[in-house]
Amino acid sequence: MVKLKESLAGPGYVILNTIRALNIIVFLDIIASCVVMEVKIDMRNGFFFFQAVTHAVMALISIVLIITELPILRNYFNRNWPLFGDEAGFLGLALAMMILGVAVLGNLNTEAMSQKSLGLAFWRIVISAGILAMVMSVINILATFIFSHRKPHVSARQVRIYGAGAKDQREEYPHPPTYTPPEPARENALKRATKRFTGRFPIKISGPMMRSNDAADHAHLQPPLNNDDAASSHYSRNSEGVPFPEEAIKSIVIFFAPIVLPRLLVAYRSFNASVASRPPPRPIPQGAERALNLLFIAISSPSYLTRPKKNIFQLTKSRITTSTDVLFTRLARLRPSETLTAADELLKQSLTSISARKIYLAFGPDTITKCEFCSINSPSTYLFFYLPFQVLLPHLVHILILLIVTSKALSGSECARWRGKFTLVASLVAFCDIYIAATHDALTGGSTLDRAAKNAPVSYGYYYISTLARPFVFGVFDLGCAAIIYLSSTHRFFFKQPSSSEQLDQGVSSALKMLNGVQSKLHATSVTRNAIVRDRSLKQRDDAYWQAIAAVEDRTRSAGAGTGTGPSTVVNNIWEEPEVVQAMSRGTYWSWRRGSSTVGDECAGVCSRGDGRAGLGVCSVRCRVYNS
Fold this sequence. Notes:
Elements (H helix, E strand, L loop, with lengths): L1 H6 L1 H31 L8 H22 L4 H7 L10 H16 L8 H4 L1 H28 L8 H7 L3 H7 L16 H10 L13 H6 L27 H32 L9 H14 L2 H4 L6 H5 L7 H11 L7 H9 L3 H10 L1 H6 L8 H27 L2 H4 L1 H4 L2 H21 L7 H7 L8 H28 L10 H35 L1 H18 L24 H17 L4 H10 L9 H10 L1
Helix pairs in contact: 2-3, 2-5, 2-7, 2-8, 2-12, 5-7, 13-25, 20-23, 26-27, 27-30, 28-29, 29-30
């Protein structure tokens, strides 16, 4: 059984750390349920205050238990709260978790905490906290008995910390032996009476002092140091108790994997679903096209393409220890007419020491010559002058360009959806640039300065490299933004289903567009009608047309109309007679066979194949109307 438990120590490291992550999640759920019950508390009488205090205390206890599960304040808990220390198991934690779970579920017995009062979502939070707390308490109890070793006195918490090396750590740092004094012998009454009057003299005698040769003689009596730190185990520590970097990484992965992996899986599935359900690619919209043009103009601007000037040490191939006169004499030979400019003269007055030259290489010529409050004795003053204009200002201009490019009024909604993300990433890039500049040591840091200290020729400095790299980073960043805008606006990637409000807006806009078209057609019809009514010839043609239509569509015309004979009877419409319907069907079929394209052709075909009845003569009127 002992060997079985020792073999479980390695896997127990993984299992117990997984249980630790689940414990923290359960306590967070209990805190959320306490907050919900605090908000939804019933205030019908004056005793609601004590119920609110109960919920607050439960949340506070959960926070303390979360701290006991984290690798912080371990010495404090070992000294003051040994029930949650490294020497104890998880029984105290499981008992507290069980009590909290029962207390949370007990609150659901009231009317104010029912599903109807809380709502389904809040009610699920409360009941899940109670159930998970009770389940995890049982799991912690089982883990305590499974992974603890009673004979070498190794607790489950030590297995969670050291893994398979817990036993070796226990042997290497054992507890000091406890001394139990023997039972005093029974004293007679006379001696007790004598001590009552004479008292006791607590005389303490120290141990004998050993000489050096005695210490050497007794060296073999001391226990040997155990240098075996379970190096063969993947879940162990070194002899100093410091975790290896690989184990620290494993601990972080085990702790965050249950939280990160499900989110990554959901993101992967949503990405696959969006790719599968995306519509076919479309031409790039005008707003996105304007945004891409602006980004192209920004990338092609001179501020992105200009190269910073080289420092004078690199121009003159000089060392940093070269004297000032020799350095600027060489520089004058490179200037027009071999004469120093006003900026060169001002720089010559500033580069009088090695420290000033190193600051010049780190922060550039403007910082060393134009800063009036800077001092060589305080290099941070040069940093305060350098950051606002040389680092922060270019990033602010870059962020302003991104805000203009992604504005909804200029580029449309396809680009506006990336506004916050682009701004956040650009702000992170600015923060990294500021951090690198702030942590750069102008006097001792940098490989260039190290080479300069060895009297090697100076090639570049931090100022030149950062000034050259910053526009390059801006250009790469803008290219990435342009690629994202192009792919998302053409529905190739990053397609986002429109929300309900956007769909409603699209429906309203399409309806308004259709209504505008109908209104324009009605207006054109009204204008045409007015023109027909005001023109006499057009009015006569219109009247003739409607008279013919009325004669055709009149169901109550007399059978002998036009002849003056016969009684007045009601007949069906001519278009509903069986002979006319059959003729029109045959005409439609024949016109399809011949490929006739006009209604007039079809109507003429029907009339030409009529059976000679007088009523079919109306077809000629229809045909003339359609052809006109």
